[in-house]
Fold:
Amino acid sequence: MQSVFTGPVYVVGDNIDTDQIIPAQYLTLVPTIPDEYEKLGSYAMCGLPDSLYPIRFVEDGQVDSRYPIVVGGRNFGCGSSREHAPIALGSANSKVVLAESFARIFFRNCVATGELYPCECVDRLCEVLKTGDVVKVDLDACSVTAEKTCKVYRLKSLGDVRPVVDAGGLFNYARQSGMIQAQV
Structure:
């Protein structure tokens, strides 16, 4: 499984809720239908206020974001317990969310869906990094390296949840480990 992710970051602040990640009007999209899964990505983070976030996460007319790594502050993913939130970010081609802390249900939905690695930062990276800065996230080393400054920041280990995300989510992990039978 991939353990190193490099690319530009999209930086947001504290208390980014699931309505900002994927507004309620898009919850009718069914992630298991490929076309609708792709559409979910095109709407990722569209609930953020333009006044605070003039750079869009997904540019108009695009389905993918150019930001494989999202950086947030405290309580990322708070609000409604919609699994569409991590799915929308994953569909937009994000791989990792780095935050000071996560809302419990968002963290669990990242793991259950296998869409994103939800990594807790030791430092407040949302005040250190700016949207567009390039970083390298190394899950094995539990580190984030800023390309511009070469400064290294620590992450908390994902521990036992990492193999679940590596497998592509809870059901895939359960099938691979023999907890449930693979579908025939």
About this structure: The mean pLDDT is 95. The radius of gyration is 16 Å. The chain has six helices and seven strands. Strands lie at 4-11, 69-71, 96-99, 117-120, 134-138, 143-146, 152-154.
